[in-house]
Structure prediction request, 812 residues.
Amino acid sequence: MEQKRYGHFDDENREYVITDPKTPWPWINYLGNEDFFSLISNTAGGYSFYKDAKFRRITRYRYNNVPMDNGGRYFYINDGGTVWNPGWKPCKTPLDFYECRHGMSYTRITGRKNGVEASVLFFVPLKKWAEVQKLTLTNQSKEVKQLKLFSFEEWCLWNAATDMENFQRNFSTGEVEIENSTIYHKTEYRERRNHYAFYHVNTEIQGYDTDRETFVGLYNEFANPEAVMEGKPRNSHAHGWSPIASHYIEVTLQPGESKDFIFLLGYIENAQDEKFQAPQVINKQKAHALIAELDTTEKVDKAFQELCQYWDALLNIYKVNTGNPKLDRMVNIWNQYQCMVTFNFSRSASFFESGIGRGMGFRDSNQDLVGFVHQIPSRARQRIIDIASTQFPDGGCYHQYQPLTKRGNNDIGGGFNDDPCWLIFGTVAYIKETGDFSILDEMVPFDNQPGSEVTLFEHLKVSMDHVINNLGPHMLPLIGRADWNDCLNLNCFSWDPNESFQTTENVSEGTKAESLMIAGLFVVTAKDYVALCQKIGKTEEAARMQQAVDAMIDAVKKHGWDGEWYLRAYDFYGRKIGSNECDEAKIFIESQGWCTMAEIGAEDGMVAKSLDSCKKYLECEHGMVLNNPAFTKYIYEYGEISSYPEGYKENAGIFCHNNPWVIIGECLAGRGNDAWSHYAKILPSYVEEKYQTLHKVEPYVNCQMVAGKDAFRPGEGKNSWLTGTAAWMWYTVSEFILGIKPDYDGIRIDPCLPETAGDYTVQRKFRDAQYEITIHPNGQQKGVKQITLDGQPVQGTVIPYSAGKHTVEVTM
Ligand code: BGC
Ligand code: NOJ
Prediction:
């Protein structure tokens, strides 16, 4: 069934173009690449923060509001009594034209009403702590237009958590300063904060407001602020309550005339002894300097051009041409873009993650960097070190850390027994991309304690040991609080609805809860670790770990196989989970993914059977569900997984993140047709074409979860943007389907394709080399017959690395 469409891809401009503001859910974008960040919806809703969405929130946003997506950077245009916004909201005055273009780290929103066009370009310039809002007003009518323009931002009192709860204090602390066209927000600057924010416009203003209730009116809404409706600013000065920033500008436009206004939302930090320029007066020197860098159209256009060039360069590193625009646009643009976003934010701030509860995940960030490392390896390197610094000496680790402090998050703690393995996954990807083995010698502390430093290699070693030292009765890894599936809480036993499944005191005495997912993950990452050890001459260590790998493979074959698929786990009491013997949830996807990736028992037909079972029991129209059949009741011994209604989230939702695991299993097994059909089901561009209304969330990125076949509305997406799906989709398509895989000494080429695939080319920048690789599949799903490098035949499937330009021809 054709569904209503709200937008379309513009591949040439690398944009998604939204043509109807009433999208089924806010469709958002991210601005900023390091330090200063903003979330922006297709109606300009959202907020900004510096580094940490919890501790350094700059503007205020109300999650889960009525209407949805309330609060943002709003421009109100009062044109002879008709009041409208270029992004339609919040006034919702019907527009004559509306368009939102989400691009690479920028968003452009254009509205037209009664002969006036307002177009706003939003972006964060590279290396700047500011969001630029370039507003262009054009008179497209034949009359002179006298417009009253009001800007609007609402300040957050910095800590996004207390901002929403500690009103007895907050309503008395708010402070601002106004200087010419700049409104400064300085709440708490008088005491322990050495930072403030400002909102500036590069023109003279005819008035302003900084007190929310005075501007809006206590019984009004963002949709009809009193000052705007009356066309009269109040020149209010906030003392306590809720400080805002609104400029008032009178604009006259001749027919055909166009004017630019540069609004700048900036953030400043001052040294302790340079905080004030006079008693109670903040030192504005740095603000003046920042404003001066971005106060004309020319300067802003140049900064925007630099941002575009930055993305050109990033997206030139891996470029495919298959002739299938739906595949090419995801590989070349949106998948890589989403990888950068997840690398930046882990699971902290989206329209489903409030920016308060979760910082950077240990496992999440290691996975995210696999999708990002080819873009800016130096940032991935730093990230690996930051992550490893939150590890404990026994190899366990904090589950999350805060981006501002880089310290482990005590509210969540540790004990997720898959976490350590991911450090190997991330580090190996980094070294293979860069050839930089020196990272292994970096001195990295435990739990950020000075004096505890050991080499990063030692961190990898204790990571592996953590698994080996925590085996259960079947010699399979103990699960701890949970493995990748945060909701399989086998030692939790909670009857108290007020405690979090992730952080309750676990019963670990006497537990027999073991995980087949960790078993598979261990085999995959430990094989990588063995190869790494061999590579750097640590042969004894390689042999030691190879034994552990062999033992784990044995344990899986003996105790982890259910006949048609791999078991999922053993519970606290040692009973099977994910077995044909179970009443519900007889089969789970995670262990099928990891054990097939590990190729455990491939020689005995286990891999093929497991993959077939995924098709038979897990696959549906929208992808593969996590488990089948869904749990229909809460099971005390299993925890959160069984708390979700059927078909949602970890209870038989299509958890997109783990579909690629099975797809890689398919690729390793050489089953290209199956790999492709699983992949295309969750590839956003294919979903976009068919299901915009049903899917609901942004059609240009993957979401964490799509409602599964047992759900009330299968195919409905949720939790878009921040998900490991991004990195896994990238890893899968770039390395396993298209088959271009970085390795220590070069690039391994080993595609796995549907038999309908035609010839394609990949441009790959790799270290100091540039490869142009052409693949001739000849109807084969797998198996490289011949490779030539610059015309010379190559032995095997690895093209040896050497700097410079190279041409590669691959025949399958
Ligand atoms: C979610 C998981 C998430 C966990 C930890 C659960 O409620 O379902 O997907 O990983 O919370 O934050
Ligand atoms: C989301 C979490 O961020 C991730 O770490 C976890 O693996 C999945 N949910 C599955 O529970």
